[in-house]
Hints:
single chain, mainly alpha, Serine Threonine Protein Phosphatase 5, Tetratricopeptide repeat, two-stranded antiparallel sheet, two-stranded antiparallel ribbon, 66% helix, 2% strand
Amino acid sequence: MNKRRLIAIFxxxxxxxxxxxxxxxxxxxxEGDADANVIEDSGALAGEADExxxxxxxxxxxxxxxxxxxxxxAPFKAFGKLxxxxxxxxxxxxxxxxxxxxxxVGVARVDDSRNSLDKISASGSAREHLANGxxxxxxxxxxxxxxxxxxxxxxxxxxxxxxxxxxxxxxxKGLQDRAKESYERAVKAEPDDAQTLNNLGxxxxxxxxxxxxxxxxxxxxxxxxxxxxxLNNLGLALCRMGKYEEAYKSFARAxxxxxxxxxxxxxxxxxxxxxxxxxxxxxxxRVDPNSTFALRRLVDLxxxxxxxxxxQAARTALSAISGETNVAVGGK
Length: 332
């Protein structure tokens, strides 16, 4: 096989990888719970309160960024992963074994790529370690934050914030079972804290324990009846239990009737319940006749189930709003 043919095969291989990566870039780059991502696309808050602001308050980091840049970067990332060796200078994902080391007194931080742990002093009060852990979590130094928060929770088992932030840190590391255990300890120490109940509820939801999640999230709603994130998380859990009308009410309380209709319709689409999704998209149109997102989805969904006249009517309405003669389906 001559050199020119080898080069042609190599180029074809690279192009195949690039096309595949671009096709799936949106899903490759998304983090977090898939259901929560669906409703966050409409601007709704959902999930754990997993970032710490300068006042020590737990808040949700807004997602976003340049989607176009991520799509075009994906082929190069995918190609690089095929041929590049693991970068030993980067800290790798924490293992359960490492987590066990963190949970003993005097445990500490990851210092190299092999996750070797150097012990630090457990001197200082629980609140000092809590303050250090909170600051490290704010800086994104998760392993060191876990060290201090573990020490704080050991020195004062009733310090609910230490358990809660430890759960946040474990969640960042993908250790969902340990996160849930930390949230449970936090709720036991402070049973009437809405954000801790929210975090525990969402953790239970992610683990598929929807009934228990609904119970904790309903308790959180009673404590914080206007909290958007808690209401949306309750809506997600109710969806998973098939309680769609109750879920709609929770979504609507969180973000208004329009978002309530759109969010429940998105979830129903996700579950393959297209005819039910149509009802909620039509409900969104009644709230806002100029909702281009609802109209685009109706064009597509009506077409899928063979209701071509309704699909064309939605397309005509969309054209009148957008001023386009040939309306494309999909998008926002």
